[in-house]
Amino acid sequence: MNRMAIVAGLVFVLSIANPGVPAAGQDVTVTTARRVHPVLIRNEAGALLQIVVDVQRDTDLRLQAMHFALDGTDDVSDLESLGLFSTGARQDFATTTPFGKPTGAAKTFALRGDLPLRPGKNVFWLSCRLKPTANLSHRVRAVCTSIETAAGKVPAKELTPAIRQRIGVALRKHQDDGVHTYRIPALTTTPKGTLLCVYDMRRRKGRDLQEDIDIGLSRSTDGGRTWEPARVIMDMGKYGGLPEEQNGCSDPGIIVDRKTGAIFCFAVWMHGNPGKHQWTGDGSAPGYEIGKAAQILMVTSNDDGRTWTKPVNLTRKLKPAAWWLFAPSPQQGIHLADGTLVMPVQGRDAKGVEFSTIMTSGDHGATWTVGTPAYRGGSECQAVQLGDGSLMLNMRNERERFRAVFVTRDLGKSWQPHATNRKTLIEPNCNGSLLRVDYVEAGAKKHLLLFSNPHTQKGRTHQTIQVSFDDGRTWPTSHHLLLDEGRGAGYPSLTRVDERHIGIVYEGSQAHLVFERIPLTELLRSPAQSAVPGLLKREVSREGIAYLQKLRKRTPFGTNDFNLKALRAGMGSRRLPTVKGVKLIKVKIGTMNGEWLLAPGADPDVRLLYLHGGGFVSGSGGYYLAQAAHVSAAAKCAVLLPDYRLAPEHRFPAGLDDCVLAHQWMVANGPAGPKPARATFVAGDSAGGNLTLATLLALRDRKMKLPAGGIAISPTTDLTLASESLKTVYDPILSAKTMPVFRDLYLGKTDPRNPLASPVFGNYRGLPPLLIQAGEHEMLRDDSIRVARKARANGIAVTLEIWPGMFHVFQSHEPLLPEAREAINHIAEFMRSSLPRK
Length: 838
Hints:
The chain is of the alpha+beta class and 838 residues long. It contains twelve helices and 47 strands.
């Protein structure tokens, strides 16, 4: 096989099949999925696995048992018990309807009961209860092997095989100690290694000030494994004769003097002003008067957090009279090498506009100096010292959905915007945490920055830790660690637990306050070793290993020159199907040529629009006939292959407009002529993967009928070429040098940030479910990861599959590679699960 044939065969393709659905004629299918979130010590129930039993017609079936294995669980003895719950047709976890009785933990087990299965989707959840001694370094994974009915067993198929859930601690839960809500944590580590977490104890309800809120503290002396009973360290009681709900304290910040061991905790106190809030209107006012201006209080501990002084009011010492508010930022401060204490703070200036800054102490906390506002529009913030000695302040931005980042070289007297300011770190307007970590690698002293927040621009979901190795200039996606994809309230706080671990407390989906301990080695892994999001847990086949080695002996296309004529010749040929009995029907879609393909048994009313690859400048539907045949046979669907217009003769958006037209035509026309489709899907690879996502966005925006699902294989999603893998991953198929050429030929003068040109910048709300597949060893891998993360952040159901050992559009190598066949089956399973009910 010559080099061009390899390029043409690998660079762009699709396939579809169904490994998880029983053979035709059976009435029940079973699929399982996991969500990314920790399972927690102290929770009575922790969701491990969702099981969906899909009954395809009216039957009298009754569920009698489900069979499970704890494959991938580090230590079965971490688990106390396991139970199964039915939620009917509801997708979310609930424990109101148990199925059978709970069982003790074992490597394999069955849960038995008796429940009728209704037509449609019957949703179940496997849940676990952890032992108090469960190891925080371990993970848990459960597998459903089959379900059992009177008609026999039905095997279950996994949709998310790679996920193993971390073990954490439900540090504070609803109604712990009779408290309604716990919020706003700030975590620190003392010189003795004790973990201290301060937080709001919102006694009556979940709302902010003004309300009955005290400052609580949890303390751990064993690295977060166990925690002492919560204690109250700041409570203004019924000060001034007003009730406790008019004497609330909130938003604690904490700092440790590492030389003296003194610990200072600050909070904001409101007196009176019922129904008001310090951040709005006259909830706080200029001046110092208690009852008009919110006050900043401080308590101190000199015995490692065991006992605390009574509150001291610092308002007159710290707050300029003209400011409307001065308050701590709810995070931990830092102790510089010269002994200076740096505490992040926030407030409202003389015009009532919110701001962020720092206050510093050079005398071990005896006095404090407040800096000038770093950014008006900022609020909650945290500071770190960079390698050059300057201080970086990372701030919640109340104006936009990007973090504000400023730097000072004079302890807050003056500030300059950082290169990433208001354009790099996304946020949903929520507190975030920034931490510097010093470490030694191969004998050399190094440091990194960690940043954590809900990694989305809408809704507080996807709690993530990011790593920067260059003082915050870049935050490579290869070092993003997703902790909890569910909806919580955010507000993470990071600390160094010990030399080997990072600790984090955040407001998660599984408890009001969640503690997790992360090995530093996991955060340090190089991009090649890093836990790539979506990476499937499977061994690379012998065929896959051998073929990748063969590819790496060749020169990737475009390394030395870009030969468009040769590329078009290679991808313009016609490759006939090897599947027997395939029907081919040529059609006209307006002035555009197209071709239907139907494998034996394909349903002509289930239609897949497949958009070929070729870098927007080459390729044809005829080149994909062989692949379309495997797709059609596996998914039992008709495949339409359009020859959309190519660049540079027809630049953006000509090809996209053709794809939109093709889908609109396919909705009303089938292989036998005019007839409405039962269901449609859009799929494509590489450039065709880009067009797949862009077509979905365009159909929605133009208020046209949307397909039941979208399938993007090795898609190009960012034509600004910003993905980290373009720089770090060696692609044996294509040289990274080709990407600017493809882009310029396609876009001309069009801004590459246009969402229809670079779908990673799109808004995915209202789109159907997506399946995205890519190879581990392709330069566009991060394009897939980033667009999956974006779509999930917009609330779209996304299945992301990164295939170990695979390369760009490896699916084109069916039947040579077992991975190609299996990936095609996954696509078919996705299609089947997305079909509307008859």
